Amino acid sequence: MRLVTVVGNRPQLVKAAPLSAAIRDAGIDEVVVHTGQHWDAELSQVFIDELGLSEPAHRLDLRTADVATLSPAIRAVLEEERPDRVMVLGDTSSTLAGARAAAAVGIPIAHVEAGLRSGDLSMPEERARIEVDGLAALLLCPDERSAETLREEGAPGRIEVVGDVMADATLRFAPIARDRVPPPHPPGTYVVATVHREANVRPERLRRIADGLSRLDEPVVLPAHPRTAATLVREGILLGSNVELREPLGYLAFAAAASQARVIATDSGGLQKEAYWYRVPCVTMRPSTEWVDTVEQGANTLVDDDPAEIAAAIRGAVFPVGAPPLYGDGRTAARIAALLAGVHDVATL
Fold first, then answer.
1. Number of domain units in the chain
2. Are residues 73 and 126 in the same domain?
């Protein structure tokens, strides 16, 4: 079997590490296409280097998140490679472009992280999830909640609950990260913050988020996405002396910092889950989340962009005692590889 996997940003590269290993073990010929949606070396190449990934067979180097630009380039690769299946991950522009390209060529699609919904159609990620799930032949869900969502929507593809491949990556790499890279401050004495979503880098929202982070009395380590840093500079948005604006961190350095933070404050979907697996309380600076279970367990607090609520939530954040495991057991990549290879029952994997 020949598989094309489409990646384009940091989280997809992290997910690709355990997936590619399991896919090789299953005897599948995988061809990785990197769209170049994240083109900064610190946001892409460093992940390939640190995670030991094979070089992508196709580097499109498109340097854009425009789906209309990405999709034809991916389609050209698919017409050249003629794979049996295309795998897309998550909810990015590269995800949607890969799915559209595969559908146009008539190649079955497997969607990793299928069925996730925030309920907020103003998010481009939400619209991408819905469209990709409508195109996919194999819907690989992280939990039963997302599978039930797809059933209710009448999704045409085969639905399988496999767990979350990010759990595989976190369990595999976090101990390595803590062993190799010292945290930026003594463990449990600082906040790690990330802000990158399109809505949150608009000047007024970013100004309010910066205000909230600046009200804290403890260090806030803020590794800035390039477009976040550009907006801060362009708009003259000031940060408090407690906020440490940094260049993007490599994966291991970031994992070491985040896993030993007192609190993680973010607008990232993936980092909400990682915080849960690290047993670090999370404050999500968005009006909604796909990872509802983390909120229901009291490990994650939604605050949107109100500065006072951001500061108060971070000050009071505590990870709940006895919080149950969520979203995976470290065997998700093996289940996905088995399904791709044609195994019909992966319940015992």
1. 2
2. yes
